[in-house]
């Protein structure tokens, strides 16, 4: 349990003395109930609103990790072990990714963003470096460039420079990585490596596999534009 004024001040909204004024003025809700009692204690998990805006007793942080293959959430290779050095409480993964997925994944302790992101990821351009089981012909590549696909919009698809014909760069809009796999499965091919190298304005430049970094201000602003959940 924590004093309500400390909970509010820890959010960075104001000082404890100013928080007391908010409480006395009836501007603070605890689990949908107005609280005007000074010294009132709340759970760290309580929903606290000041002027009808939800606050949390810590500052929001946003992290991008260059995920290695085979890391997940249940095995000895736990994806959260890769970011434990961040020492940030309540970090959540913005989207679920499979073991065979590698490349950029995002984490945050901003629960509002964590909840809305899966509904809005299809609005963000993503770039993948994909290795296929079988090489593509130029004709087949053109087929994908012109193909209209449900749940997936191809922006560009090209061979990777100085690589074999089974390596392509795919820029697209989609809500699920499974749609990418289905795209090539329907063309009698198979993805053997799916590596996300860019998501929105976030890239893995200078970010080695298995390493993480904090997002910069521009990247955070871009992400926060996706906080709205659909009705």
What keywords describe this structure?
231 residues, 15 strands, alpha+beta, 23% helix, four-stranded antiparallel sheet
Describe this protein's structure:
The chain has 231 residues and is α+β, with helices and mostly antiparallel strands. 23% of the residues lie in helices and 29% in strands. The protein has six helices and 15 strands. The model has no long low-confidence stretch (mean pLDDT 88). Strands 7, 8, 9, 10, 11, 12, 13, 14 and 15 form a nine-stranded mixed beta sheet that branches. Strands 3-2-5-6 form a four-stranded antiparallel beta sheet, with no helix packed on it. Strands 1-4 form a two-stranded antiparallel ribbon.
SSE order and pairing:
Layout: E1 2-3, H1 4-10, H2 16-24, E2 28-30, E3 33-34, E4 41-42, E5 48-50, E6 53-55, E7 62-67, E8 92-93, E9 101-108, H3 111-120, E10 126-132, H4 138-146, E11 152-159, E12 167-174, H5 177-185, E13 191-199, E14 202-203, E15 212-214, H6 217-224
Parallel strand pairs: 9-13
Antiparallel strand pairs: 1-4, 2-3, 2-5, 5-6, 7-9, 7-15, 8-9, 10-12, 10-13, 11-12, 13-14
Helix pairs in contact: 1-2
